[in-house]
Amino acid sequence: MTQAPDMIIVGAGLSGLLTAWRCLDVNPDLQIEIIEASDRIAGDHTWSFNLTDVAEHLQGWIKPFIAYRWDSYDVKFPKRKRTLDIPYCTGNSDTLRACVQLHIDSGRLRLRLNTAVESLHSDYVVLESGEKLEARGVLDARGFEPNDDVFLGYQKFVGHVIKTKEPHGLERPIIMDATVEQLGGYRFVYCLPYSETEVLVEDTYYTDGPELRSQEVDARIKDYIRDNLNVSEYEVVRREKGVLPITLGVQDRYDAAPALGIRGGFYHAVTGYSFPEALKNADWIAYKIDLFGEDWDHETSDHTLQVNRTQHRQDERFLRLLNRMLFRAAKPEERYSVLQRFYGLNQGLIERFYAGQLKWYDKARILIGKPPVPVHKALYNLSEKAFIRRERAKRDSK
Length: 398
Ligand SMILES: Cc1cc2nc3c(=O)[nH]c(=O)nc-3n(C[C@H](O)[C@H](O)[C@H](O)COP(=O)(O)OP(=O)(O)OC[C@H]3O[C@@H](n4cnc5c(N)ncnc54)[C@H](O)[C@@H]3O)c2cc1C
Hints:
The protein has helices at about 15-25, 55-60, 95-105, 215-230, 275-290, 300-315, 315-330, 335-340, 345-355, 360-365, 375-380, 385-395; strands spanning about 5-10, 30-35, 45-50, 65-70, 75, 80-85, 90, 110, 115-120, 125, 130-135, 135-140, 150-165, 175, 185-195, 200-205, 235-250. By secondary structure, it is an alpha+beta fold. The protein folds into 3 domains: about 5-145 and about 250-315, 3-Layer(bba) Sandwich (FAD/NAD(P)-binding domain), CATH 3.50.50.60; about 150-250, 2-Layer Sandwich (Alpha-Beta Plaits); about 320-395, no CATH class. The strands form 4 sheets. A 7-stranded mixed β-sheet has the order 6-5-14-15-16-13-17, with helices on both faces. The protein has a 4-stranded parallel β-sheet with strand order 8-2-1-12. Strands 3-7-4 form a 3-stranded antiparallel β-sheet. α1 packs across α3 (about 95-105) and α1 packs parallel to α5. The longest helix is centred in the C-terminal third of the chain and has 18 residues, at about 275-290. The N and C termini lie far apart (about 50 Å). The model has no long low-confidence stretch (mean pLDDT about 90). The protein binds flavin-adenine dinucleotide. Flavin-adenine dinucleotide (FAD) binds near residues 12, 15, 37, 143 and 272. Flavin-adenine dinucleotide binds near residues 16, 35 and 273.
């Protein structure tokens, strides 16, 4: 019989693998078992982030994860075009798998694939097969699941990676091209030029409901490529799609099991991106284990995650307010103007916004000035508590 691991992580996605990688790098005697429902770790994804989202002491460590890096990127709106000198990076499933391979080879990271976990507890899990597996600590990294205490809008997208015959002419990423038709919500196109002849083109839109009509979006991507990129012939070599939660309001109650990643609510309220928070948690947990050494047990990581979750939710209160302005106060066809105004602000503020580190004066700067939304609607959506009361009443009456 194999020895029980120190830690079990359920879910071999972004947060589960970053945490395993960091914990094993920092703690040479640690043993982790990761349990994954699908047939491989890390899935088939790309994950992008501003390098300024990453704490300085982790920028060297995260390098092997980075598959592409650009020194700047563009944003485009009907009345604003700007290049931001913020380094932008993309990692993917291959680079993430490579980051943990050393630990798999050494036997300190054990994988159990094609295995779904039925229930999680602080120091054991029960598999769908009924088998019980024990460890000193269990972390839940199973990805997103809606719950009754969160009120959401959605960011939905479809992306095509295309290989072109001729150079496509894009020098740097376009993080938001909102000059496209808005189609009744906030919509933009996102382009990442991986090489002179390979580019990801992603059509993204924000709406109230989670349904994604991917065929319509496929057609819009084709139109965008035809009208905006300098290419006549290309083939689609990869497709991705996603529906990300955008938090409008959240009840101040923390009764869920401690969890990592999207499962634990660790994502950016406005963008739905989770890489920066996953990295922070991975580092925190790794050093807690290091600090407690042999005395480390599930309470250490449970406590760390609960404290971080409370802090994260408090820090994101302002971002949820911005989301309510975007989804509930701005007229659908004018929602882009909220972002158009935001991208006119100084670069340091924009970096802090994405890194989840806005200062009080940044928040004041974002709010001061002529709001791009009707004042009465802005005031109506100001209070999160009142918003939740109204949304709950709506839900209950259905
Ligand atoms: C297409 C797409 C693109 C995205 N792009 C970005 C981006 O560029 N930057 C960014 O920061 N964020 C991005 N996100 C958002 C977010 O960061 C990702 O969704 C991220 O992968 C979430 O990480 P996670 O670890 O919480 O969950 P996941 O990466 O989804 O991992 C969850 C894992 O748990 C497994 N699992 C689920 N249930 C069980 C079970 N019962 N038993 C065992 N295993 C189970 C799943 O199979 C999966 O492997 C993107 C999301 C999508 C969908």
